[in-house]
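User: My collaborator sent over this chain with a note saying "see what the structure looks like." That's all I know about it. Can you take a look?
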Amino acid sequence: MKEILREIGTISRSIATIDEKEFKALNLSKSQNLYLVRIFEYPGIIQEKLAEVLSVERSTTAKSVKKLVEHGLVEKRKEEDNKKEFKLYCTEKGKEIYEILKKDEEYLIEITTQGLSEKEKEELLFLLIKMRKNTRTLWEKVIKKGELREWK
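Assistant: Without extra context I'll predict from the sequence alone. Here is the result:
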């Protein structure tokens, strides 16, 4: 059923377009809100792990993190336990913006699940998690291992 992915894609693009327009005032662009939220939720996360959590390429993560650092929303720190990698933390300014992003997420959940019962929301979440896990396997194969899919 091709409609499933098309509907998910439409929802995702709609939210991303709205966010991009509204978050310009916060100096956030191109899904940087997603990075900031995850850095807040996982203080001390390293870029490689952040890329995995968001299922994006490391180079994309590096560009977004660089912009967040330039805008004073995130700071990189070398820790004593590992001098080779930087750990990421929200600055005070980043924490303030996180609170706005959290409210936005709550609002979007309310809007997108309007008319669904609690049972329907639970079922939807269960099915989406299942789909994410299936997609994750393909993502790891193509992005992390560099293998290409066989077209049939």
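A starting point for your reply to your collaborator: The mean pLDDT is 91.
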